[in-house]
Design brief:
With 133 residues, the protein is mostly helical. It has a single domain (2-125), classed as Orthogonal Bundle (Tetracycline Repressor, domain 2). It contains six helices and no strands. Helix 1 (2-13) runs antiparallel to helix 2, helix 2 (18-35) packs antiparallel against helix 4 (52-79) and helix 4 (52-79) crosses helix 5. It is globular, with a radius of gyration of 16 Å. The termini are far apart.
């Protein structure tokens, strides 16, 4: 978690616009999963078996990670001129989209991590065009 946070903060410091920060966050999250699949699955599935002290350390890192995400989402919302009071709900929805692929996504499969990142970004930003016929 600490390495992921440091890496994310470094990447985010290199971009300026809220949309770029959003893309960077999604990309970081997916690539972190791809590079650390076993650890990611273990952290998500077995966290309840950790001693309380260890779990608290992880939860503190998660709070920092979530705060960064909420700040990014808030920036995107403000850039679009929206005034939403549900930034937390939006942020956790995006986090779910980025986290749940650990259950089904195979980086060696038909779709690449880049395609997953692009798809999540398009869905989240409302840029995915689906034929309604």
């Amino acid at each position: 978690m600490n390495n992921s946070l440091k890496g994310l903060e470094k990447k985010l410091s290199a971009v300026k616009s809220p949309r770029e920060k959003l893309y960077t966050f999604i990309s970081h999250h997916i690539h972190n999963y791809v590079e650390h699949q076993n650890e990611s699955r273990l952290a998500l599935l077995e966290r309840s078996n950790l001693p309380r002290e260890s779990l608290e350390v992880i939860k503190e890192g998660e709070r920092q990670y979530e705060t960064i995400l909420r700040s990014i989402v808030d920036g995107v919302v403000k850039e679009k001129g929206e005034n939403l009071d549900s930034v937390r709900l939006i942020s956790f929805s995006l986090l779910g989209m980025c986290t749940f692929p650990y259950m089904w996504f195979d980086p060696e499969g038909q779709s690449t991590p880049h395609q997953l990142i692009e798809t999540i970004f398009k869905i989240f930003c409302g840029n995915l065009k689906i034929d309604q016929s």
